[in-house]
Amino acid sequence: MPDSPPPLPPAIKGRGATNAALSGRFDDKARESDGDWLDGRDAIDGEGPPLRTEVTIEHPRTIITRNQSPDIAFDRSINAYRGCEHGCIYCFARPSHAYHNLSPGLDFETKLFAKPDAALLLRKELAKRGYRCTPMAMGTNTDPYQPIEARFAITRSVIEVLAEHDHPLIITTKSAPIVRDIDLLGPMAAKGLAAVMMSVTTLDPAIARRMEPRASAPHQRIAAIRALTQAGIWTSISVSPVVPAITDHEIEAIVAAGAEAGARGAFSLVVRLPHEVAPLFREWLAVHYPDRAAKVMALISEMRGGRDNDPNFFDRFRPKGAYAAALKTRFKIACARHGLNSERLELRTDLFRVPTDQLSLL
How many CB atoms lie within 10 A of CB 96? Predict the structure, then answer.
């Protein structure tokens, strides 16, 4: 008789990953877990002690990350945090935790790093001789408004520096708490210096709780779009990532909800599963959607040339096949129906003022 497959780990309330999913790319041996991270799995009937979030203070020497990928529009970004408490199972940033000898699974969403010196470092880097101003991106790796921002306010301190020196900024988030900073972003937007992209993956709260357990609820994100646009802040809605056979039926509804809330643009990407994200996602499917797990992965494979992921530049953002073409067409029609993407956003760079220690003569 063939051996039975190992039992699946239980879902952990408030977390996306179901285990540590240790990386084999940088570790030559498995790490042993400490008690803080696996207590929740010992629960017989569900709950058990919650997995605690730990935050390590990090003191980097620079804060601006330069991007050289030829298929990404921005060339610089700021990441106030490493890891993300949202716990989105599909997050393409998960593998970055492996570089810290931490797992892209539960460690990524429970063992976080914060950079409280970010604003000070930013001011110094903006003042460097030869600095050339182009829009700064935030939220390109982990969410700048994840729950620990309420405690550390690092994102706000960065925006304060950018606002002080009229430096353009684009923020991508799935967090309604961004409305806290409307007092900064509104005046920046009035000068043509700020834009926001709000990610809405689903309008179904049950799916959201499973897929992105500590992110803002879908209705809160739509409300945030409304608040941002009413404050004069150019806001787009990102229908990303689209997950085949789980959220793909919602494309039109999400676009409509964003447009009704005042969004002026829309964007969409299909789910990507680089490195350790693929096995984590497969396990998540087996735990939460065993009835359609095979179908989901078959559709992903169809779009990615027979693999879980296509890592090649440009191709990674251009899924192939009839199913991918149908998603693209549906999204394009939905945007046209609601008048989205009819205008092109251009943030100003000519207003930038270099930080200086000298007092103004004005």
Answer: 18
